[in-house]
Structures
1.
Amino acid sequence: MSMLVLEDVHTHYGKIEALHGVSVEVNKGEIVSLIGANGAGKTTLLMTVCGMPQASSGRIILEGRDITNEPTAQIMRSGLAIVPEGRRIFSGLTVEENLHMGGFFTSKSEIRKNQAHVYELFPRLKEREHQRAGTMSGGEQQMLAIGRALMSNPHMIILDEPSLGLAPLIIKQIFEIIGHLRDEGITVFLVEQNAHQALHLADRGYVLETGKIRLHDTGKNLLENPDVQNAYLGG
Amino acid sequence: MAANNMRHALFCAIVTLIISFPILGLSLEAKGVNITLSGAKTSTYVAIVLAAVAVFVFQIFRDTFMGALGKLPNLNPLAGREPMEQTKRVKLESWLLTGIVVFALFWPFLVSRGSVDLATLVLIYIMLALGLNVVVGLAGLLDLGYVAFYAVGAYTFALLSQYTGISFWMALPIGALLAGLTGMILGFPVLRLRGDYLAIVTLGFGEIIRILLNNWTTLTGGPNGIGGIPEPTLFGMEFGRRVKEEGNTSFHETFGIAYSGEHKVIFLYLIALVLAVITALIIRRFMRMPVGRAWEALREDEIAARSLGLSRTAVKLSAFTIGAFFAGFAGTVFASKQGFISPESFVFLESAIILAIVVLGGMGSQLGVILAAIAVTILPELAREFSEYRMLIFGAAMVLMMVWRPQGLLPVRRIQITLNKQG
């Protein structure tokens, strides 16, 4: 049963084509990793799913619904959540207010329930509940960004480079949490430069190169693939 | 370093001479049909040279001066203290606000008629600033044409009273709604823009409305304005010496007291006070509602806010519309207070002053904005004795203010750190 399907998606920034016909499939309950070098179009691919920018051709199907031409606000309210690149938390708001923003379109009781759940996953956030989010460390901010995304009861969560600029110990923690999310039944689509850890965790993986999917296999096979090892795993 | 300072100071002194000599030292005199150029008095030349010397001395010791200025916050007894606890702070703020309102209720009975009139103006600016605070302070949309909505409110009342004889109380909601509607219509195409671009476009809209009012002579009377705008009535009681409208009674006759011009002024003041309090309470309510948080979230990070499913247009438009609504509110009161309005009351300077109030008060903070509105409106009046130097003093006060408290009088605070005791 597929959660998200991209069929021959092309995306343009003005006249420049960034994605040249990408097809990706993410099944329910999977962790799928997308790896690729700088400028390969990883973030563009994710943003196209979210409708900013919209795909210029091809189809994007989320849980059986065609969302290709839907506005961002509508897509993001239908069981999809994203942890954007560089975290993008609301630094002037408190941790709690950030979480409440995540649950903007759910009921009060849902917010209470989900907030308790997020604090369970990240006890650190509970300690800093009333602190301004911008004053926290990078790792804590990443936790908050993930927590905020979980507030909307998503069926699928997209993570854009969650390990960016974090200490190895924190990265390990974050990846553990991502594994935990799958156990809770949330489908995960993970974009990473940190290919080794991303592929380890993933059920399946895609390799994106200059706007095209080059390879596609299980995480384990990709880790053992000599081409991938050469290009992304440092030999 | 010292040589550098010296050269810089010398340069500044020369610039002072170059600028002030032609302005002050030379004067044009009309003699018959000819205009002759003549020099000023010797004392003026001495003053110019003294000014240059003053600039020179200041520039040489500039670092010392500015350093001392930077230490100024130390004079502030609150500067070194720990930030207050959130709950305590909120409590204190609401007590303070209640105190101000109670004091304001008794204010008109203690002072002269002129002061009450000025206080009414202060209240109108408070309404305006609270409204703009939503747009600029909370939603982060720099609106330089805010005065347009103020004008819509004022002209709605003026025109409706002229053509249909509507009363103040009927016009108040209509004016506010119409201003809100204008805000929505204007906002729709421009809210895609961000930052400087939005500022320029709103500036243009503000001017368009003013020029429209100025040139649509058949409807608005153009630069001559509209007069004879009725004053508010209290349950059908008028405050004039004689009753103007059929069916109304007069206030002083109903209560059997002697007629006094002050009744009207005080009544207007009290209306403005009630409306300002209502404005503050409604906006306070909005700020605590999810929509208030959505405004702030969109200001903080637009992409993140959109990724959470917030509609950019809906959120921005709501802030813009609510801000415009309260400007219309204030505009209606203003029209009623003045009894006469013309496009001259709605120039860009008004927008700038309202914006200055919001910035001086500390963006997003209601109490700060209220205090700043009082300061900005009253300061030029207090400095009236200095006549032509009034605006100079006003400007200097603003500059000092920004050096002393760059985040405004009472910036919004959110930080709350509680450290657990260890071991």
2.
Amino acid sequence: MSSSVGIVSAQRASFNTPLQCKSGGVLPRYDLVYETYGTLNADKSNAILVCHALSGHHHVAGYYADDEKNIGWWDNMIGPGKPVDTNKFFVIGLNNLGGCHGSTGPSSIDPASGKPYGSDFPMVTVEDWVESQARLADLLGIRRFAAVMGGSLGGMQAMQWAISHPDRVRHVLAIATAPCLTTENIAFNDVARNAILTDPDFHGGDFYQHGVVPTRGLRLARMLGHITYLSDDAMAGKFGRGLRSGDYKYGYDIEFEVESYLRYQGDKFAAYFDANTYLLMTKALDYFDPARHSERNLAAAFMPVRAGFLVLSFSSDWRFSPQRSREIVKALLHNKRDVSYAEIQSRHGHDSFLMQDEQYFAAMRNYLNRVAKECQ
Amino acid sequence: MTASLLQLRPDFAAIAAWTPAGTSVLDLGCGDGSLLDYLKTERSVRGYGVEIDDKNILRCIERGVNVIQSNLDEGLSGFDSGAFDFVILSQTLQATRHTEKLVREMLRVGREGIVSFPNFGYWKNRLQILRGHMPVSDELPYQWYDTPNVHLCTLRDFEKLCDDMGIRILDQRVITGGHEVALLPNLLGSTAVYRIRRGC
């Protein structure tokens, strides 16, 4: 029987060693918020790090005592008896640096100025995140992770872990991810960023002082992003050409069901997400490209990797297509690393990695059962 | 376990005998991963399987066998040339659509190829055809209307294909009921295993 990890609470870790970012910026001190589920075993060998994607955070599983409806974003995957079984593993979820859910980010107060960082917050990359996560692992006494896992941008972090810290990762579960973004992906991100950057309420990133939020830009960015996370099939299946009032109104108000859905998603997102965080996350996506330092040869970039890999893609995911996952597999094969790859048949597009699916979950479960045996 | 497995898949012993310890293999159409598991345990062989079926993928992952989900009929473009010591096509040849292309591909990716297949020329198969029916047996357990086998062949057919493609046959085992067949192999052998490589 699988169930929820139950009531969870976030923890905060403060770091006073300056973090030198790839962009040249420096964070003299920073906080990371995180949650843990399950029990760390005596030799601290059963820890799994869950890296989040663009809009994710540290609240990965379970719910809060004072807000039972606030269920973790990957709760279907993680819990007692679930594919990531918290009876076996000690699971860590954190909010990445630059985030807006408690870890130090552009909306946090800069102790040096007493004002929100805003435009002063340094650009952070996947490599910087991995360094900050490694410091959290140090703090928790975890020398080597049983696995580092994530979907999309989270999968990029998991891969970077295996490159940057080969001796600290036994396994990587890289889901619906890619060795770098496609041109088209960067283009989508740029449109989303432009929506925010050109919003008059953005104020060059320092909108906090003006008491405004670039809501219009943020919701447009989210609406666009949301379309690309779904598949044409999934949207057609969910909304078709359905009309809210049953007939054409010949106006610009919400008419089609899909418009209603997108605007709702955009509004919901703009109400809680920080515009600067959105910009940072999309840039981190654009910049991630391990082959950049090895003349575009991914196999060469993967040379330090020691971890075993489970690579999963989804048939209808056109933003991080199966072809991109096969590039990862090929580079691992070239380095004679242990790797298994499955292409999950799913119609939900990129969002499939967040959905419950029999084949997907069984692949995760079977792989992690092997990992659990290794770590005992 | 091993004894019953060998009974079930008599070609495994021949394949294991040809793959020295520590070599690398790619098993095309690896099914539930039992051959790779066997080679890993018995011969410390480092291997990967290619498989298309969802259930088989799960069983490979479950037993800790590296498996890549892929359609063999789409070629082996995901694998570098010369990446493996051996590329194995165990009881899969007859179910591939672009058989000639795949054989060429396996000898690009592997230094040597090992191919096993049910011998359509086995006397029991011939007898069933003489009686007016498509053969059904332990090696060919399907009815004509539900078989995945689209390219069945005899030993002689396979040898001719190798000849036509300039492929060298390095070794050959013919097996019936777990025993090697020396006499009239194309008539008396139910399963054939060939070790091949590109001709010079």
